[in-house]
Amino acid sequence: MSHGLLLSFEVTILVLAIFLGFEVISKVPTLLHTPLMSGTNAIHGIVIVGAMLVAGLGHKDTLTTVVGLVAVVLASANVVGGFVVTDRMLEMFKKREPPAAERTAHDGGAAKEDPSKREVPPTQ
Amino acid sequence: MGQVATNFAYLATIVAFILALKFLSHPATARRGNWIGAVGMLIAIAVTFAQKSVVSYWEIVVGMAVGGSFGAVAARRVKMTAIPQMVALFNGVGGGAAALISLGEFHIRAPDPGRLHGDISVSIILSALIGSISFAGSMVAFAKLQELIQGRPIVYPGQQAVNALLLAAIVAAGVGIVAGAEQQWLIVAVILGSLLFGVLFVLPIGGADMPVVISLLNAFTGIAAAATGFELENNVLIVSGMLVGASGTLLTILMGRAMNRSIANVLFGAFGQVSPSAAASAADTDGGAVRSATADDVAVMLAYAHKVVFVPGYGMAVAQAQHDVRQLADLLEARGVEVSYAIHPVAGRMPGHMNVLLAEANVPYPQLKEMDEANSEFPRTDVALVIGANDVTNPDARSNQGSPIYGMPILNVDEAQSVVVLKRSMNPGFAGIENPLFVNPKTVMLFGDAKDSIDQLISGVKAQ
């Protein structure tokens, strides 16, 4: 494939991705702004693919080796940290129970969770 | 693994990321969305390992072990109050990685004159430029939120001109590279210049605006990642990077809207400059009479109220008082007092941050009222208990055109019968703005650490 043709395909999917990115989060409640920011933060950790492609090259000089290695370190921190911290936040949203139910849980030990109360009801 | 198979496997990653974003936008599916995203990422990493051009493994494995364990430990240990700076940090390292990729790519390709297509060199410059700005800017945002440097805007004369000149110089170096001057020092100049620009760009923005800045830099890193996709002719980087670039931009706009401010205003404007009328109002606050109360006085007010609204802010979270606040709320409810929480969209240090913090303390969800609902309830509220919140209750936002936060929608706590403000001292808030609410005749102040004060209120109410 000629370089120009490849470029035209790349630009096409780039533009489609812009529209998709706007579309897919257009109705997010304020409640989820922080986890969403953190989640998209984890997704741009995809630069790890680029870092791997640079670091994985066979014949390269010292500068490229160091640059590639550092890029992999940074991108891995982005990926792992991003997903873990987002999961920690969202885990808390799951633990939603009315206080009465929680007191029962502490007193009796046998906590019966009402499944309908465990998920966060949609806001707005 | 052949190029075609690789690209199809990358498509699976792209689909996973799209589903992840979609699921992350709904409370019930958000956690699953995050997991789907992580699976997509794993697929991309595995596929990249299997690529023909990837032959040297030790850099990758060592790098992943070091970076991954740092990320995991930091993300596990961070307190929920420190989430904003953690996001800033993870965002910054992503941007840094994008900038380094472009440096590496340029170094690999540059020795062959004429090999660099125009679009490749443009995307190398863009990812170097945007990635470096994102890295340096995020680090400044981190330092401001962590209070390593002062949160107030740092301004000096001619700041905008200096920034504009620096950016022009960076762009000139970039144009030089695209025009064919494929010199190593030029790309290094672009990166160093962009790092400096990132610092200078974020320094004049006030601490209270950092969430918007982080969200914007988040979008920047996405765009830098997409640019590296053009350098490496890699679909998954282009699409995933741009998805984050677009959704991050929209999220930034939504956050700005929640504060009723344009993004340009957040980035370049008002917070730095104190207009004369704002200074005048600040003087008023200094001169006004502040009434302070004892915990016992406030406990009586609360115990015999019909309706109490808690207005939590970042100060509550810093004092780790959210569990005590819930105890106090439970106690009041047991006495028949109607209790709710008024949550400003930007309470805490990030939109939605306060919801996370109260969720951590198991506050029942139906008691959390969003701003509009809360504001309609204040006129029939006996006591509004403001716990470590400041700017989101500042009446200047409604009435003082000279105030830096004029126009920001606020919680109208001053419409309640009486207002109790729990505050450490009379220092102005994170944004460094005076708050005339404190001298309102309806207001009494209860000074001290939020957690201690709430504990005193709990024993006070119990004694009634």
Please summarize what this structure is.
The complex is a heterodimer of chains A (124) and B (464). Chain A is mostly helical and 124 residues long.
Question: Can you describe this structure?
Answer:
The complex is a heterodimer of chains A (124) and B (464). Chain A is mainly α. Chain A has six helices and no strands. Chain A has helices at 3-24, 33-43, 47-55, 62-94, 99-108, 115-118. The termini of chain A are far apart. Chain B has 464 residues and is α/β, with parallel strands linked by helices. Chain B folds into two domains: 80-268, no CATH class; 280-463, 3-Layer(aba) Sandwich (Rossmann fold). Chain B contains 18 helices and six strands. Chain B has a six-stranded parallel beta sheet. At the A-B interface, helix 1, helix 2, helix 3 and helix 4 of A face helix 1, helix 2, helix 3, helix 4 and helix 8 of B.
Question: Can you tag this structure with a few keywords?
Answer:
heterodimer, A: 124 residues, mainly alpha, 72% helix, disordered C terminus, B: 464 residues, alpha/beta, Rossmann fold, 2 domains, 6-stranded parallel beta sheet, 7% strand, elongated
Give the C-alpha Rg of chain A. Answer: 22 Å
What's the order of the H and E elements of chain B?
A: HHHHHHHHHHHHEHHEHEHEHEEH
Computed over alpha carbons, the radius of gyration of chain B is 25 Å
The count of strands of chain A amounts to: 0
Question: Which runs of chain B of at least 5 residues are low in confidence (pLDDT < 50)?
Answer: 270-287
* Coarse shape of chain A: flat
Write the layout of secondary structure elements.
The complex is a heterodimer of chains A (124) and B (464).
Chain A: H1 3-24, H2 33-43, H3 47-55, H4 62-94, H5 99-108, H6 115-118
Helix pairs in contact in A: 2-4, 3-4
Chain B: H1 3-24, H2 30-49, H3 58-77, H4 83-109, H5 118-145, H6 159-178, H7 184-202, H8 210-232, H9 235-258, H10 263-268, H11 276-287, H12 295-303, E1 307-312, H13 314-318, H14 322-334, E2 338-343, H15 353-360, E3 368-370, H16 371-377, E4 383-387, H17 396-399, E5 418-423, E6 443-447, H18 450-463
Helix pairs in contact in B: 1-2, 1-9, 4-5, 4-7, 4-8, 5-6, 5-7, 5-8, 6-7, 8-9, 12-18, 14-18
